[in-house]
Specification:
Helices cover 40% and strands 4% of the residues. Helix 1 crosses helix 2. One of its GO terms (biological process) is translation.
């Protein structure tokens, strides 16, 4: 597989609106070449008989099922609030909003 060229790195930098020096272009060309080589090696290892997965181990849902149950009433919920108004929590105004 041919390596990434300086011209390709410079083109990517222009597309990304990055201003790179010649030394940075050479440095990034070497790094990108290593990265592309590693990605190519993964492609060689992947076999058709192995299904794609998002996790190496199967995931199990540990959440309890939703159940409807009695909840706090308005008065109970507001009992510990520092300030309440019209059966709602009163909080300080922010950003000068009305």
């Amino acid at each position: 597989m041919p390596g990434i060229t300086r011209e390709e790195v410079a083109h990517l930098a222009r597309l990304s609106r990055l201003e790179l020096t010649d030394e940075e272009i050479d440095h990034f060309a070497g790094q990108l070449d290593v990265i592309l080589g590693a990605v190519a090696r993964v492609g060689e290892v992947a076999a058709d008989d192995i299904p794609p997965t998002s996790h190496p181990l199967p995931l199990t849902n540990v959440m309890r099922p939703d159940e409807v149950r009695e909840s706090l009433g308005t008065e109970q919920a507001l009992a510990g609030a520092p300030a309440a108004e019209q059966q709602r929590f009163r909080v300080p105004r922010i950003l000068g909003e009305e």
